[in-house]
């Protein structure tokens, strides 16, 4: 039976229902129930675009098994929908209406109901309905639930008034956030997890008559209304209807000031009364309630005055608005005092619960009840990867953050939130932002000043959206390119990583923190402390990861020289926060074995804070607490006592604050330790100027994605390109050449920007505003023909450009061995083979790490490591067509085979395809010379070193490197030449210019 027939014959079908179902909760004027599912076979097991019922789950084995059972006890008809489940993640089933037909109108009804066979499990069963949008999989999700606390069949009624908008997940991020009920696409039911079970349901239908409260709602302009002592608070009360129709019935709102922490008659003048909105009132009409506060001469914390609203004829506001008399006269509010004194005063006034709140960071998606910000005195919120407002615009970001910030004003001391994001290569969660090359490409530029400029652009764009804190930069040292986070590192050499930490000044400004209150600076985060780039292949125990979150096994000397070195530089640069790694550290001979970094007090307290003098605060990684051994209270105690000051607990802020306060009361965490953590957090909030200016300063928002910002990204993209091979000087191309362009990554902005772009993992396709490499070549004036798979005829071209590489990934999802390898796809290899067999060709590899291409290298005339250049493909075109010279150098060693991994500069056995530091140039005048020239350069470099003439020393070494590269490129790379060549770049970065030229001379002789 078709759905249209079902709806048309609703009255007939109602007569078939059991008396209990037809009559339950039915009023005399109620319309007949309208069936949605009878489960008699009229709706097939199918999925979109057809109408049907289908299952889903977090893992392949999480989806339930469904069947239609004939049962004599069926509440409606002869059959019921039955099934079994065994769910570890999440799972359930959906009924979607056909996507190629109009949506359904449920607005005439009070709610939706179903028969459920109870098993008294006590499980809560979430039930969702799908409202608006293009189809059932691109609609808003509205949710409620019922509890299986009974046995046998029971009809469950779910009034539409009980459904709330899902804040933790929306397939498209929201349509209009209004449950309109006029364009409904179906429903979904989520089954319990953690134990095997069976279920049965029947007779899903719409019931009852809609009342006006479903179409009309009363709201206030804000849930929190701050007012200075002695001022008058104005609370605007608005009535609005779905579809903006006038009221068809009157709405009244009785108001009265209730009992808060403020004292009536002393702190404010009580008010009460009634607001009336007669029938015919236009939607959007407002009335104002005013409450006058009284001034005295006392210094006081903030005090609250609830404004109780009783609504008749419409849906009441979800929350009681709170008028807040601002804190005043207390020393911590005096911006003239030193930060240290302000912090001490505030900490001395706070309760344990308030201190625990400051140590807690929750995800914005967890704020389905935004009042939790004040209830738990939360110190921080974050947007995880892909957690964005709808629409994803600068203005929506600022309004979202300001809305959360307003909630913090309802706390006693009005301590502002500090909001954080992972802006790891630009404001990468924001559509339209300027996206820089990932760190691996920035390392390839060897340009600390340019790195600083990229940080400054990022900071400006992030702060303009109301966000004062960036979880960047990653100062890890990548030692194995099988690691799925390799591209988050500046390179394999700690000296290179340290040289790129100028980005911290770009983000924060001056090292003393005095620039943090500027509207174009943000608090930076050095991550991930410690050794995350050194995890051993196969050591991870997180899901299917092979390296990420695994174990770093090192000697004490290796730990100091490789992994710790960048953190001292970050501390010296004044970095405000540090984030520990998910990984474990196993130091040879210390007797501790492998210990998770979030519990390594010897490293966090002992080294970072005590020895290095870090005075900022330590923020945990996302849910990292849960990976520690022991019970939850033991995990909390271990991490806090190890020195973690703020815990990123995205969806468990209530659980964490309760456990933390209990552990302090039990004496397992000292009050002194809590005060230290809170003092560190508050210090950064004061430095950021959040107490004086908690809300977004959007004056720089017009510069987000601006030409000036994109020009910085373009320069970075150009400087990051590493020319590995250039036989016959194929590059740069000439504009009068006919160029054949192919490959999967030539015209894909998603692949070009990589992971951590719009979403956590990133994605292929047109996901963000920018210029692809193909578009950049066309913009440069090139005569270009494009065939992605190289299927177009290849005759008549002067040169080919094949752009290949990886698709996006993030973290351990991208680990080699976790569905990834270091080889090009079959399609990419085929494109390279076809184009390079037909014409002289250049191959660009767009990737987060080296790709193995040795078996095709002989047929390739020019090879470029393009890394992940970001949104500005024009920058890649700039070097392809000679507008800028190729100057980039390898930040990591390019291996010949996967069996060589890990391979790094300084290894005893070192025979790569291309060594660390390699990078040919297309400068118009390449330096000439031989052994005698190198000897003279060595003497001059030594003199520059002794004179501390860094710029001169670098220029001399660069000249020597280019001479040596020319010789090696002409004769072929050998292990004898590769090792000293790579050593030279490390020596250059450590200021040993004479020794660098000596090693280059050795490479020259070995070539």
From TrEMBL:
The protein's Enzyme Commission number: 3.2.1.21
Tell me the leader sequence span.
1-24
Which reactions does this protein catalyse? Hydrolysis of terminal, non-reducing beta-D-glucosyl residues with release of beta-D-glucose
Cross-referenced Pfam families: Calx-beta, CBM_11, Glyco_hydro_3, Glyco_hydro_3_C
User: What enzyme class is recorded for this protein?
Assistant: hydrolase
Q: Which GO terms describe its molecular function?
A: hydrolase activity
Keywords associated with the record = Calcium, Glycosidase, Hydrolase, Repeat, Signal
What residues does the Calx-beta domain cover? 205-310
Note the superkingdom of the native organism: Bacteria
The record's comment on protein family reads: Belongs to the glycosyl hydrolase 3 family.
Protein's name in the database: beta-glucosidase
What is the source species?
Streptomyces andamanensis
């Amino acid at each position: 039976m078709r759905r249209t027939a079902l709806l048309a014959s609703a009255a007939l079908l109602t007569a078939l229902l059991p008396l209990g179902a037809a009559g339950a909760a039915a009023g005399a004027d109620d319309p007949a129930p309208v069936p949605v599912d009878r489960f008699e076979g009229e709706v097939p097991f199918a999925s979109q675009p057809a109408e049907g019922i289908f299952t889903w789950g977090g893992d392949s084995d999480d989806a339930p098994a469904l069947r239609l059972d004939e049962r004599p006890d069926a509440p409606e008809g002869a059959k019921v929908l039955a099934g079994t489940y065994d769910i570890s993640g999440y799972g359930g089933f959906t009924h979607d209406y056909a996507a190629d037909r109009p949506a359904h109108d449920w607005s005439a009804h009070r709610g939706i109901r179903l028969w459920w066979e109870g098993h008294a499990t006590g499980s809560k069963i979430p039930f969702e309905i799908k409202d608006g949008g293009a189809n059932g999989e691109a609609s808003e999700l509205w949710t409620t639930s019922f509890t299986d606390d009974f046995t046998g069949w029971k009809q469950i009624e779910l009034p539409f008034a009980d459904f709330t908008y899902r804040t933790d997940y929306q397939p498209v991020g929201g349509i209009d956030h209004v449950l309109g009920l006029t364009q409904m696409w179906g429903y979904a039911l989520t089954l319990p997890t953690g134990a095997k079970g069976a279920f049965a349901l029947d007779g899903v239908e719409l019931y009852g008559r809609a009342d006006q409260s479903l179409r009309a709602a009363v709201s206030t302009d804000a849930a929190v209304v701050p007012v200075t002592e002695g001022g008058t608070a104005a609370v605007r009360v608005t009535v609005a209807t779905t579809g903006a129709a006038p009221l068809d019935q009157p709405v009244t709102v009785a108001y009265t000031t209730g009992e808060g922490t403020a004292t009536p008659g002393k702190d404010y003048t009580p008010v009460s009364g009634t607001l009336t909105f007669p029938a015919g009132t236009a939607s959007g009409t407002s009335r104002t309630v005013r409450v006058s506060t009284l001034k005295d001469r006392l210094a006081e914390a903030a005090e609250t005055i609830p404004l109780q609203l009783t609504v008749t004829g419409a849906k009441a506001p979800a929350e009681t608005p709170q008028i807040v008399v601002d804190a005043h006269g207390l020393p911590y509010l005096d911006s003239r005092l030193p930060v240290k004194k302000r912090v001490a005063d505030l900490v001395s006034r706070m309760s344990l619960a308030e201190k625990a709140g400051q140590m807690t960071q929750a995800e914005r998606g967890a704020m389905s009840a935004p009042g939790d910000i004040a209830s738990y005195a939360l110190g921080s919120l974050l947007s995880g990867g892909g957690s964005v407002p709808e629409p994803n615009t600068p203005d929506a970001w600022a309004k979202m953050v300001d809305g959360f910030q307003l909630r913090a004003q309802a706390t006693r001391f009005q301590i502002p939130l500090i909001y954080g994001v992972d802006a790891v290569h630009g404001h990468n969660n924001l559509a339209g932002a300027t996206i820089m090359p990932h760190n691996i490409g920035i390392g390839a530029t060897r340009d600390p000043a340019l790195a600083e400029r990229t940080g400054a652009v990022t900071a400006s764009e992030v702060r303009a959206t109301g966000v004062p804190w960036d979880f960047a930069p990653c100062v890890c040292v990548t030692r194995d390119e099988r690691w799925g986070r390799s591209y988050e590192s500046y390179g394999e050499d700690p000296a290179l990583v340290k040289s790129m930490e100028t980005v911290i000044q770009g983000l924060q400004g001056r090292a003393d923190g005095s620039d943090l209150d500027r509207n174009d600076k943000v608090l930076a985060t050095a991550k991930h402390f410690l050794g995350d780039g050194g995890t051993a292949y196969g050591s991870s125990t997180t899901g299917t990861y092979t390296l990420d979150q695994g174990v770093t096994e090192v000697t004490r000397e290796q730990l100091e020289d490789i992994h710790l070195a960048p953190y001292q530089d970050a501390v010296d640069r004044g970095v405000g926060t540090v984030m520990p790694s998910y990984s474990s550290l196993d130091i040879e001979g210390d007797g501790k074995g492998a210990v998770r970094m979030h519990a390594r007090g010897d490293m966090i307290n002992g080294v970072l804070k005590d020895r290095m003098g870090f005075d900022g605060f330590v923020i945990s990684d996302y849910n990292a607490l849960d990976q520690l051994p022991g019970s939850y209270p033991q995990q909390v105690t271990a991490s806090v006592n190890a020195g973690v000051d703020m815990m990123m607990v995205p969806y468990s802020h209530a659980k964490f604050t309760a456990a933390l306060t209990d552990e302090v009361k039990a004496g397992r965490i000292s009050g002194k330790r809590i005060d230290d953590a809170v003092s560190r957090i508050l210090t950064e909030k004061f430095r950021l100027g959040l107490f004086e200016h908690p809300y977004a300063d959007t004056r720089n928002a017009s510069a987000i994605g601006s030409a000036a910002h994109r020009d910085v990204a373009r320069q970075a993209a150009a400087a990051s390109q590493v020319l590995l091979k250039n036989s016959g000087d194929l590059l740069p191309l000439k504009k009068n050449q006919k160029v054949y362009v192919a490959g999967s990554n030539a015209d894909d902005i998603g692949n070009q920007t990589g992971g951590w772009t719009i979403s956590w993992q990133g994605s292929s396709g047109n996901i963000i505003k920018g210029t692809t490499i193909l578009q950049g070549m066309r913009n440069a004036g090139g005569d270009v023909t494009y065939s992605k798979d190289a299927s177009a005829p290849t005759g008549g071209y002067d040169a080919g450009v094949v752009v290949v590489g990886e698709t996006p990934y993030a973290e351990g999802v991208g680990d080699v061995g976790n569905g990834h390898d270091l080889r090009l796809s079959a399609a990419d290899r085929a494109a390279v083979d076809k184009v390079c067999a037909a014409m002289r060709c250049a191959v660009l590899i767009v990737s987060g790490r080296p790709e193995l291409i040795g078996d095709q290298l002989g047929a390739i005339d020019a090879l470029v490591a393009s890394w992940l250049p970001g949104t500005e493909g024009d920058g890649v075109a700039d070097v392809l067509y000679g507008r800028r010279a190729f100057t980039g150098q390898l930040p990591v060693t390019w291996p010949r085979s996967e069996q060589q991994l890990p391979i790094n500069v300084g290894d005893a056995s070192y025979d790569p395809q291309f060594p660390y530091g390699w990078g040919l140039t297309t400068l118009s005048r390449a330096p000439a010379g031989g052994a005698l020239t190198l000897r003279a350069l060595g003497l001059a470099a030594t003199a520059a070193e002794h004179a501390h003439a860094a710029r001169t020393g670098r220029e001399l070494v660069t000249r020597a490197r280019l001479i040596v590269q020319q010789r090696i490129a002409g004769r072929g790379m050998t292990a004898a030449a590769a090792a000293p060549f790579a050593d030279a770049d490390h020596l250059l970065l450590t200021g040993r210019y004479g020794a660098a030229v000596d090693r280059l001379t050795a490479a020259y002789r070995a070539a």
